[in-house]
Hints:
Strand order of the largest sheet: 1-5-6-11-10-9-7-8
Bound molecules: histidyl-adenosine monophosphate
Helix content: 25-40%
Number of helices: 16
Shape: elongated
Structural class: alpha+beta
Distance between the termini: 44 Å
Largest sheet: 8 strands, mixed
Number of strands: 16
Amino acid sequence: xxxxxxxxxxxxxxxxxxxxxxxxxxxxxxxxxxxxxxxxxxxxxxxxxxxxxxxxxxxxxxxxxxxxxxxxxxxxxxxxxxxxxxxxxxxxxxxxxxxxxxxxxxxxxxxxxxxxxxxxxxxxxxxxxxxxxxxxxxxxxxxxxxxxxxxxxxxxxxxxxxxxxxxxxxxxxxxxxxxxxxxxxxxxxxxxxxxxxxxxxxxxxxxxxxxxxxxxxxxxxxxxxxxxxxxxxxxxxxxxxxxxxxxxxxxxxxxxxxxxxxxxxxxxxxxxxxxxxxxxxxxxxxxxxxxxxxxxxxxxxxxxxxxxxxxxxxxxxxxxxxxxxxxxxxxxxxxxxxxxxxxxxxxxxxxxxxxxxxxxxxxxxxxxxxxxxxxxxxxxxxxxxxxxxxxxxxxxxxxxx
Length: 401
Ligand code: HAM
């Protein structure tokens, strides 16, 4: 099916490595895992993600179940986390909660390189925390994960979208500015001009066209101070560019927003996020400020490319004498218990076939057991790169790898 894929080989390995980096760094930042359902009530996304967004208007996999409930496959994780925070009364145990999630998301977008209909997001949400330090921490958490994983070339953009005090005036200013430019706007921007004029700013066509002439947001004192403090805290720890044209495509954002970009393709956002200080309350929860982000795992993997770090050694156990099968099988288990990656066990095949498979499996060593070895309780250790080989007592094999 277009946009849905089987993931295997190096692609699967890369995703697993990225998840391992993420889990390691989440632990350092004291962020706990939250597993949220893949399916939620459609209404949750309409309300939280926002009914003016492309996601809700065009991209949701929504359906009616046998009980007549309107459900949707999650297109993003933030609404589910916000719902869980409210439903599980997390704010009562501790108002400040730091969660991460790793899971597949679904959006019926037009598939192309880096854009799938089912894709993996790794995300973090800090709930109940309003200080600028939390914004900086969230951004550095994201940076630390992709750095640990090995992404080297990326850029970071940040902006502030203002709050309920300063944003309405800016919205109005944009509506007026773009209304006077109606003949110069693309169809998409024309249709969202009244409902979501900020989106025109990050339109690939019109955003670029009006970059210099469009009025820029005047933040209120509180938002300006908050944004300045975030930038101060980030200074010297990450390279970033403050970009007044960055707005992001979801309705719940307030204040700080950011995006990590890599590569030149149209799908160059490897991660994005921002504050959503009013979302929890608007969903019936506490008045809890929040900030979070999600990375597109496939895009982060593409931004790094192949893993160049040294790989663990691997051995392939070959046995050519039926009488040695048990000895060879026991050796495989001993090697694994010693932490060595071990394959083999094709003892019904001839030597040539087993050695061919050892090569195909990209093992570094073959361990070969034949008639002589069975008799002497030894094994032949062959380095598959150099061709060098030596005979060892079976008990010394694991320590010789
Ligand atoms: P988003 O910008 O919609 O934000 O998605 C985050 C990332 O998911 C994108 O930067 C991109 O790397 C990846 N992504 C999105 N769509 C696709 C796709 N069709 N195929 C492959 N990758 C994709 C959110 O989802 C927000 N929930 C982030 C957030 C969390 N904001 C606050 N908390």
